[in-house]
Amino acid sequence: MENKDIELEFSIKSGAPEKQRTACVVVGVFESRKLSAPATDIDRASDGYLSEILRGGDMEGKAGSTLLLHKVPNILADRILLVGLGKERDFHEKAYRDAIACAVKTLRDTGSMEAAITLSEIPVKKRDVAWNIEQAVIATQDALYRFDRMKSKPSEARRPLKRVIFAVSRRGELKYGEAGLARGLAIAHGISLAKDLGNTPSNICTPEYLAGEAQKVAQAHGFGCEILDYAACDKLGMGSFLSVGKGSDKPPHFIVLKHEGGAKGDKPVVLVGKAVTFDAGGISLKPAGEMDEMNYDMSGGGAVIGAFRAIGELGLKLNVVGLIPACENMPDAKANKPGDIVTSMSGQTIEILNTDAEGRLILCDALTYAEHFDPDVVIDLATLTGACVIALGAHPSALYSNHDPLAREIEHAADHAWDRVWRMPLWDDYQDQLKSSLADMANIGGRPGGSITAACFLWRFAKKYHWAHLDIAGTAWIGGREKKGSTGRPVSLLVHFLLNRTLK
Ligand code: BES
Ligand code: MN
Ligand code: ZN
Which of 13, 34, 105, 286 is catalytic? Predict the structure, then answer.
């Protein structure tokens, strides 16, 4: 029942593509019929074989198009796969990643065991060789990821792709390529774990299961790991967190991961991840049609566990703490009821006007608990609001912060990781929407600016340190019956953020 990683072997090479002795060499063609540099080499070696095929109209170079050629004259590889790259002037990050994904899916479907991919040689504006290789590895693992542990028979792959060679154009670039490869692999492994956790249905992926998965990662990499049960959380005064899990027969678990890779006494980065293993809405029950995807409501916590896997593989010289409040939000006789008032660990009281706004109720206590670690910065990740999906759609995560330099640091890491964010306002003006006549605050702020008022709620618990919040409701998974699945975001962003800090 384990979901096996498709373990690919990656390597980096420089050298003439026509001399690669491999099952398949992949070369790119721009629109309209313009050969990339490696494609030109093949064309020259084969006395214009590619140009002739293109002249015949077999391929235009449109993005997403492919053409597999056999027995190309004077070429040592068994086959040449042409991949369309679209217009050269539009060849940016997305086009690059899409081209790699298209190439590896075609390789898988045509049964190649090994391939040398030269698309990684094609320059992407503002990016360097290490970036190209790192992104190629991540895009490859992403394209080939499958989650079939819940199928009675694993889906049949034809002779699966085993070895992928990414090309760099000069020998001197090999060492940058190798560095990109190591980073890309660690990030891809973190993403893959976050995806597995997200995709595992909530009858299996319970708070206890997540705690077990965190412990496994801790064991593999020598992290500290502590699981706080109900009694321990109660003793800490986490009245808000505990109120959410009460409606479930699966007990809450508060997971603490600790990586001490930095100097003793260096303030840690604290990562906080929302992990509601199923969000039925509680007594404010969600409509049936929107409920089946709510197993993904633990994606923030899953991303923290995934990031820790990458942190371990890279051996980051940094102190990092992961805090994951995990519980289930269900309707029940013991569940929170609209109008209930709870006392958070900070002492602030909260009127629960809607039990479906539970994410902020578990995060606020985790944010208070973060103070125990004397953090340098705290970043929380949460599939927090449907309103965020309405505002930004599926491409950027929403970024909020009480500290501009931290926001810029995250924006920078997000751009480099190509795991993008968009900064949103955290203005005082919105705070009025959270007023309650009976308690210190209400847990909802009405429909206008729903992602913003949720962030404003969290802000009230994060005043003692530099803090950022990522609403990942639109980015953590892809919806829909046929292709639904976790994206593993924002593992890549987190790892880049931490990596950049080790370089300071
Ligand atoms: N987990 C949901 C947010 C969510 C909804 C993420 C849909 C992705 C897709 C969260 O707990 C929630 O239910 N939020 C409510 C808040 C509202 C009651 C103020 C929402 O967004 O509807
Ligand atoms: Mn909810
Ligand atoms: Zn939720």
Answer: 286
Q: What whole-number distance in Å separates Cα of residue 334 and Cα of residue 354?
A: 15
pLDDT of the residue at 111: 87
- List residues near ligand 1 (CB under 6 A): 279, 297, 354, 356-359, 383-387, 389, 444, 450, 473
250 an active-site residue? Answer: no
- 360 given a catalytic annotation: yes
pLDDT in tens, 373-432: 999 999 999 999 999 999 999 999 999 999 999 999 999 999 999 999 999 999 999 999
Confidence label for 159 from pLDDT (cuts 50, 70 and 90):
low
Contact between 106 and 82 (Cβ < 8 Å): no
Per the CATH hierarchy, to which homologous superfamily does domain 9-169 belong? Leucine Aminopeptidase, subunit E, domain 1 (3.40.220.10)
| Ligand 1 closest atom vs CA 453 | 19
Q: Where are the domains of the chain?
A: 9-169, 191-502
**pLDDT tens-digit series, residues 331-383:** 999 999 999 999 999 999 999 999 999 999 999 999 999 999 999 999 999 99
Q: Amino acid letter at 52?
A: E
Give the largest Cα separation in the chain, rounded. Answer: 82
End-to-end Cα distance, the chain: 43
Q: Do domains 9-169 and 191-502 have the same CATH topology?
A: no
| Bond preceding residue 46 cis, omega within 30 of 0 | no
At 168, is the secondary structure helix, strand, or coil?
A: strand
The superfamily CATH assigns to domain 191-502 is Zn peptidases (3.40.630.10)
Distance from residue 357's CA to the centre of ligand 2 (Å): 5
The tokens for 214 are: 């965190």
**What integer pLDDT is reported at residue 2 of this predicted model?**
44
255 and 323 in contact (C-beta within 8 Å)?
Answer: yes
Q: Where are the alpha helices (DSSP H) in 222-329?
A: 230-236, 239-245, 299-314
Q: How far is CA 66 from CA 59, 105, 224, 439, in A?
A: 8, 11, 48, 62
Pocket perturbation via mutation, ligand 1, pick of 356, 441, 472 by most ligand atoms within 8 A of CB: 356
Residues 327, 273: contact at Cβ < 8 Å?
no
0.85 exceeded by the pTM? yes
* Atom 13 of ligand 1, residue of closest alpha carbon: 356
Q: What is the pLDDT of residues 266-308, one digit of tens each?
A: 999 999 999 999 999 999 999 999 899 999 999 999 999 999 9
What confidence tens digit (pLDDT) does each residue in 210-241 have?
999 999 999 999 999 999 999 999 999 999 99
User: Is the separation of the CB atoms in 276 and 325 below 8 Å?
Assistant: no
pLDDT band at 4 (very low <50, low <70, confident <90, very high): low
CA distances to 82, 89, 343, 494 from 501, rounded to whole Å, are: 40, 33, 36, 11
Kindly give the distance from the C-alpha atom of residue 268 to the centroid of ligand 3, in angstroms, as a whole number.
27
How many angstroms separate the alpha carbon of residue 400 from the centre of ligand 2? 20
| pLDDT for 1 | 39
